[in-house]
Specification:
The protein is an alpha+beta fold and 68 residues long. Helix 2 packs across helix 3. The longest helix is centred in the C-terminal third of the chain and has 12 residues.
């Protein structure tokens, strides 16, 4: 994913963290100030499980979160 992001925009930084701070289930966020995208692994897993009923499509679901 880092290679994909840097290929599209070398100044954009992708950060992958274990979970989002707080109580909301946030898969990812963009910060214009830091020009960063942060993905939260555990939150993406929770969302994938809730939306698709399983984790077998987790990689594809993660790409969707990144694109959105």
């Amino acid at each position: 994913m880092n290679e994909f992001v840097s290929w599209h925009d070398r100044s954009l930084l992708l950060i992958i963290e274990k979970e989002s701070p707080g109580t909301r289930c946030v898969g990812g966020k963009y910060s214009a100030e830091g020009h960063t995208i942060t993905l939260y692994q555990e939150d993406i897993e929770i969302q994938c499980q809730r939306s698709l009923g399983a984790l077998d499509k987790l990689e594809e679901y993660t790409w969707i979160i990144l694109y959105a």
